[in-house]
């Protein structure tokens, strides 16, 4: 398939002479570091109800709900939720083959996003907020656009994109209307909007493409699959810049389940089905670190970079290498200092961690974790202390997103409901 040339402002080359890797010394060797005995910083909540003389509860448990808004319109599990970059909007998708755009301040349904014939597993707003995409298990990617310059409540269907067998995830370019999708059939698709033209089809994976994203500078793409392969792409070429596979024993993660890219676009951190985490230099195309804090065999479901300043007098911030948080099915969220490749703190949930999100500056030290234990929690990543617990779901939380500049968190639940809370 012929490729359409990507606009230069989205994918221009970096300046020559840039430092290859400003965080990891070239002489660093792969170091395997274990959990150094960090204990849980939050003990599981226990109810206060007593027992009567026959060992029965004295009274029924009252379900706690401290959310500020809810959206109950889905008829089945809600798999995906995303938020508008500026307006009080969320887009959710679910088991009922539907997506919705709804108001996170009022809970009102604004638009029903129809046309899918199987579960909607991905939703995403474009960087400028003018477009929203839904992706489904039916392989369809459907695009809606905002109508009118002043009214964020009115949207119309624009076009349907085809190509993938089953859409695993969607990502918009950080600066332009270019959409990236990973498929269950080992392919990765790149489209230009609003035309809907296919710009590139990337082939090179051997398993379902489980995760991927643009680098924050918008110049490259990183994708990974369930077979354990990571590929670094130039969007203008169907040929990989480099590829790492499980044939390298240092990179054998028994399938890659999650990834994140640092703000400088120089490092990728990937999590695996085996519980392992690897740090990859994107300039060198090689593994430069291994992080071992999750229980073996527990899948790493979420990775998120955070920016830390000093937490207060006597508490030093990490050096320039950065900090990353990994969350897994063992119920842990591990905070890592990438300068030393050491564990800073361990955060605890009662069940699997499904997603992680950091607030924007000046509160970038705060992270929100979502869990199968039916709660979300806001933490101070500088100290590992719990800031706030968010309750209200009666089933596992499958995805979450920050909205309104990070002031609220919106969740998607297996109980068929989306909820909204203040993050602090």
From TrEMBL:
Keyword Transmembrane attached: no
SUPFAM superfamilies: Quinoprotein alcohol dehydrogenase-like
CDD domains registered for this protein in UniProt: WD40
Compositionally biased region (Acidic residues): 9-23
Region (Disordered): 1-25
Entries under Pfam families matching the protein: WD40
Keywords associated with the record: Repeat, WD repeat
Signal peptide: none
Segments annotated as WD repeats: 71-112, 113-144, 170-201, 202-243, 346-389, 390-424
Database matches in PANTHER family: ANGIO-ASSOCIATED MIGRATORY CELL PROTEIN, MITOCHONDRIAL DIVISION PROTEIN 1-RELATED
Protein's name according to its UniProt entry: Ribosome biogenesis protein Sqt1
Source organism per UniProt: Trametes coccinea (strain BRFM310) (Pycnoporus coccineus)
């Amino acid at each position: 398939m012929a490729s359409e040339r990507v606009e230069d402002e989205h994918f221009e080359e970096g300046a020559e002479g840039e430092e290859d890797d400003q965080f990891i010394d070239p002489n660093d060797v792969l170091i395997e570091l274990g959990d150094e005995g960090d204990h849980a910083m939050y003990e599981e909540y226990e109810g206060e109800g007593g027992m009567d003389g026959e060992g029965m509860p004295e009274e029924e448990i009252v379900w706690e709900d401290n959310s500020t808004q809810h959206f109950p319109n889905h008829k089945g599990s809600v798999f995906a939720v995303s938020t508008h970059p500026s307006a009080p909007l969320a887009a959710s998708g679910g088991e009922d083959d539907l997506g919705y755009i709804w108001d996170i301040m009022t809970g009102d349904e604004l638009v029903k996003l129809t046309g899918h014939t199987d579960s909607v597993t991905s939703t995403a707003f474009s960087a400028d907020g003018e477009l929203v995409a839904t992706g489904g298990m039916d392989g369809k990617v459907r695009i809606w656009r905002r109508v009118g310059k002043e009214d964020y409540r009115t949207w119309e269907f624009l076009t349907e994109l085809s190509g993938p067998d089953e859409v695993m995830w969607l990502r918009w370019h950080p600066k332009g209307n270019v959409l990236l999708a990973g498929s269950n059939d080992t392919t990765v698709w790149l489209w230009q909007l609003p035309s809907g033209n296919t710009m590139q089809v990337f082939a090179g994976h051997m398993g379902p493409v489980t995760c991927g994203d643009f680098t924050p500078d918008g110049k490259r793409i990183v994708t990974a699959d369930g077979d354990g392969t990571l590929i670094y792409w130039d969007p203008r070429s169907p040929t990989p810049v480099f590829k790492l596979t499980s044939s390298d024993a240092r990179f054998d993660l028994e399938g890659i389940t999650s990834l994140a890219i640092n703000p400088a676009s120089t490092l990728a951190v990937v999590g695996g089905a085996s519980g392992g985490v690897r740090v990859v230099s994107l300039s060198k195309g090689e593994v430069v670190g291994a992080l071992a804090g999750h229980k073996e065999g527990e899948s790493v479901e979420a990775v998120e970079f955070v920016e830390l300043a000093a937490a207060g007098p006597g508490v030093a911030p990490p050096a320039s290498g950065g900090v990353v948080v990994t969350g897994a099915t063992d119920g842990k969220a591990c905070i890592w200092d990438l300068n030393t490749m050491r564990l800073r703190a361990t955060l605890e949930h009662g069940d699997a961690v499904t997603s992680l999100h950091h607030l924007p500056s000046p509160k970038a030290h705060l992270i929100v974790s979502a869990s199968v234990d039916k709660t979300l929690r806001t933490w101070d990543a500088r100290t590992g202390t719990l800031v706030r617990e968010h309750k209200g779901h009666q089933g596992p939380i499958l995805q979450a997103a920050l909205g309104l500049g990070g002031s609220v968190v919106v969740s998607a639940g297996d109980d068929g409901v989306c909820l909204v809370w203040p993050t602090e």
